[in-house]
Amino acid sequence: MRRTAALLVAALVLPLLAACGGGEDDAEAGAGGVEALDADFLPEQVLGLDVGKEDLPTGIEDVRASYLDAVSLFSMRSDEQLQATLQVGRFRDSVDFDDAGFRRGLLTQIGSTRPQAVRLGDRTVYMTSGLEQRLAIWFAGDHMLILGTRQEFERPRTLLREMLELQP
Predict the structure, then answer these.
(1) 105 band by pLDDT with thresholds 50, 70 and 90
(2) C-alpha to C-alpha distance for 9 and 163, rounded to whole angstroms
């Protein structure tokens, strides 16, 4: 079961860790390694699902060419069954994370379908899909969050709304 969360992080985190494109921004993006992000804004349970911090892939702290300086992955389980994951990444100070072109570039690397913008309250959330999962991506200040839910999970929008209430 824990391996499933690790596979999800490989699909979500790894594209974001590599600085895409070319030029000075890439050199600035890789100023240091990627560390584990402390995300104390998450409760122990959401919608009856147990929230737990997952281990990041071995060697992630050695990644240098990244737009992120810190990242963490959380699982949401019903008993031992993984229902959802939440990846929280913090952008480096040198990254212009508010730039629409930069965000589009990141969003196109996530999921297997073109992300569709959806307004939920005062937030824009980008919806896409991955291998047997739904993905919701949003930006909160200098953070990017990716919520992945199993296709079989019955309350993905409710879980997303709960996650949007929490602030990194």
Answers:
(1) confident
(2) 18
How many C-beta atoms lie closer than 10 Å to residue 163's C-beta?
20
What residue type is 39 in one-letter code? A
Tokens of 7: 């596979």
Instruction: Name the H helices within the chain.
Output: 2-17, 24-29, 100-107, 156-165
74 in Cβ contact with 159 (< 8 Å):
no
2-165 belongs to CATH 1.10.3730: no
List the chain domain ranges.
2-165
pLDDT at position 39: 73
Total Cβ atoms within 10 A of residue 27: 12
What is the C-alpha to C-alpha distance for residues 3 and 1, in angstroms, rounded to an integer?
Answer: 5
This prediction's pTM: 0.82
Separation between Cα atoms, residue 151 and residue 148, nearest integer Å: 9
Mean pLDDT of all residues belonging to the chain? 79
SS3 state at 138:
strand
**3-class SS of residue 106:** helix
Residue 139 structure tokens: 């930006």
CA distance 108 to 117: 12
